[in-house]
# Entry
Amino acid sequence: MNAVLEEKVSITEAAPGKIGAEVRGWDVTTFTKDSPEPELLRQLIYRNKVVVMRDQYELSEQQYVDFARTVGRPQVYFQPQYHHPDHPEIFVSNSLNEEGKKFGVSGTGRYWHTDCSFEKHPLSFTCVRPIFFPKSARETSYIDMARVYKELPDDLRAYVDGRMAMQEAWPRYKVQTSDLDKSIAELIENFKAECPPQPHPAVIEHPVTGEKCLYISSGFTSGLVGLSHEENQRVMKELFEFVEQPKYVHTHFWEDNDLLIWDNRSLIHKGSKAKPGEHSRMYRIGIYDDLPFYVGIAP
Ligand SMILES: [Fe+2]
# Structure
């Protein structure tokens, strides 16, 4: 890989069986659609699942969107309240608003999930650029669901193999000022009409690596299709207890000027929770690589 990169770029890939690559000295503002870097980066993501590009000192919002366009097709999230006012591709997670000005949405993604699993075509990659952090809680955690699937006990594997799982966003809906005077039932009904429950296989095959990944999360997966309510409650509890074991958790500790990008097919992730009074602002861009999300679904 390094042959086409300048000497100043250093890449440390994950050790066997681990995830996470670190890149230093790579200026993403120099990427173009026709340069070799975007394809190198995509392959680095597929192999390592999460890649941190350190020291991205100067990266304006426009440059960030331009970079994302070299890697794939940026998403415009379906709920406009998350959009950056000048760049709808930037999804803003933000807890600090200037007087009278709501900017993005606070407290996003602090539960295990994979981005947009509740959509027919979920997001291939997620890219995150922190603008500022709280003093505490400077980390995002990941679980490699290909490893989890490999190590899943036979009795649990028998429940997920060949079965569909329901992905649902409505329990995570964040109430907006325009929802005033609406009942909870009405809000749920409206949001379900906009974003209906979506089935996906509980085990997906990655279109690039060929790995089988358990594609469920306690944040968005409501149950396995075909099981009774009682059986689902028992099996999902056992599955999530197995998935969320500390031995599977990989933690990214944020440094200033990081740019992080990860593979949503094989990872679930969770943001950390800051202490009251501390603030964070993160800019996310979802990116589609326009491959089928899993083997068997159209791109
Ligand atoms: Fe997320």
About this structure: The first helix runs from residue 37 to 48.
